[in-house]
Amino acid sequence: MKELFNALEKIKTHDHICLIYMTREEQFAVAIPFMQIGLGRGERCVYIADDNTSVEVLDAMRKAGIDTDTAVRSGALAVLHKREAYLKQGSFDPDWMIRFLKEAADSAKGAGFTSLRVAGEMTWVLGGDPGAGRLIEYEAKLNYFFPENDVSAICQYNLNRFKPEVILDVVRTHPLVIYRNQVCKNFYYVPPDELLLPDQKSREVERLLNNIAERERIEKSRQETENELRKREQMLYEMIKNSPLPMMISEKNLKIHYVNKKFTEVFGYTVDDIPTVDKWWQLVAPERGYKRTEKERWSKAVDKAIQDKTSIEPQEALVKCKQGFLRDVIFYFSSIGERDLVIYHDLTERKRSEEALMESREELKKYNIELKAALDKVKLLSGLLPICASCKKIRNDKGYWEGLEKYIASHSEAEFSHSICPVCAERLYPEYKEQLS
After folding, report:
1. Minimal CA–CA distance to 352: which of 331, 315, 325, 314?
2. What pLDDT does residue 307 have?
3. 3-state SS of the chain: helix, strand, coil percent to 5?
4. Enclosing domain of residue 426
5. Is the dihedral of CA 420, 421, 426, 428 positive or negative?
6. Residue 116 has what pLDDT?
7. What confidence score (pLDDT) does residue 383 get?
8. Are 4 and 141 in contact (CB under 8 A)?
9. Inter-residue contact 72 to 78 (CB < 8 Å)
10. Whether the predicted model's global pTM rises above the 0.70 cut
11. Residue 153's closest CA among 93, 189, 102?
């Protein structure tokens, strides 16, 4: 019934609808929600009873959750008898009844209501009252009235009580038909100009032929559209099937519908291995705690995307493959109608390369430190050295004169072992010349 209620909510002001029903349950399943929706929109609602009593109608409204007492007191709801509406003059006059609706609509607007909404039981026609034979004239003329006035109405016809020829004319005079709990656009609707003006039969023949041609055009267009959609769907599946990235398609009920070849190649799993999303999480999470954390993170991301009406940010995860090893992946989620598409990007090799690069950088950093330390120990003597021509002292960077040995020792890694050359030995120690030689 939710689908029916949603369809009734789409009924707009100016709509003229007929309800064809067979049981009271079927009748009230439409008429009562129709009234309820109108009250919720701030419309004045009028129910004209005949086949059912006013008490029965009000009781059905209360069971549906309508506060009838408050609605009646405020003027938002009125349940009338046929003698208070259609037959108020003692007979039925289509033009008078349309004026009655016009005055009721104007009164509703003047009282602050957004529009007038009417649900009328049409079994009063079967009573044989004067003017009842002008029913179809009335229904046709209403199609001039509704477009120009803030009114919507459902005319209720019991299929078990009206003759087929009457029901046929009723269908012809209503742009919308409700039958078997479905609100339908009426392809057999006849505009009032065709129905009321002379030469109606020839106009109807032309309209029927045009409808036949139009229906054929629509059916052909529908088939072409379906064929094109099937081609695009097949093309999409081929793209997913042959994608270089792993892909998964799941249903809204969390059943996994499809995985492509690359998915099985990368992770090792087929649809038989992971029939549901829950099974996927059970198999791929490397440990229980990680699985719980990742599922919670994923659920929060989905809830936030739904709340903000945005896409889900790419998520990173660690996936345990069927072969037992782990892969680092990033996955992207997209909702496509009743199905969800998840695209995975394997980051394992990139992560390994990044880790190897980081290790290389650390090694290089270590070598640089060692090299700097080594270079700090290496002190080279280069360029011109200011040396005294007499005492052979060398002037250092601070302007002080240092002995040759001290200067060289402080500017290089050289060490001195003292000895004496033969020339100096002969000069300084001539008495030891023979021993030294």
Report:
1. 325
2. 67
3. 50, 20, 30
4. 379-437
5. negative
6. 98
7. 62
8. no
9. yes
10. no
11. 102
Q: Read off the pLDDT of residues 225-252 as tens digits, 9 standing for 90 and up.
A: 999 989 988 898 888 889 999 999 988 7
- Closest-CA residue to 115 (of 172, 175, 40): 40
Q: Are residues 76 and 128 in the same domain?
A: yes
Q: Do 192 and 111 reside in the same domain of the chain?
A: yes
Q: Based on the fold, state whether residues 321 and 183 are members of the same structural domain.
A: no
CA distances from 367 to 136, 325, 357 (A): 101, 34, 15
- What Å distances lie between residue 82 and 31, 91, 230, CA to CA? 17, 11, 54
Intervals of the chain under pLDDT 50: none
- Does residue 157 sit in the same domain as residue 86? yes
Instruction: To the nearest 10°, report the CA torsion of 3, 80, 123, 107.
Output: -70
Query: Structure tokens of 41?
Result: 């929109």
Residue 228 is which amino acid?
E
End-to-end distance of the chain based on CA atoms, in angstroms? Answer: 129
Alpha-carbon distance of 216 to 214, in angstroms, equals 5
The number of domains in the chain is: 3
Domain boundary at 197, 228, 263, which? 197
Q: Is residue 102 situated within a structural domain? A: yes
Kindly state whether residue 17 falls inside one of the protein's structural domains: yes
- Count other C-beta atoms under 10 Å from residue 368's C-beta: 10
Sheet of strand 77-81, all strands in order from the earlier edge strand to the far edge: 77-81, 44-49, 116-121, 151-158, 16-21, 176-179, 182-185
- The per-residue pLDDT for 437 is 59
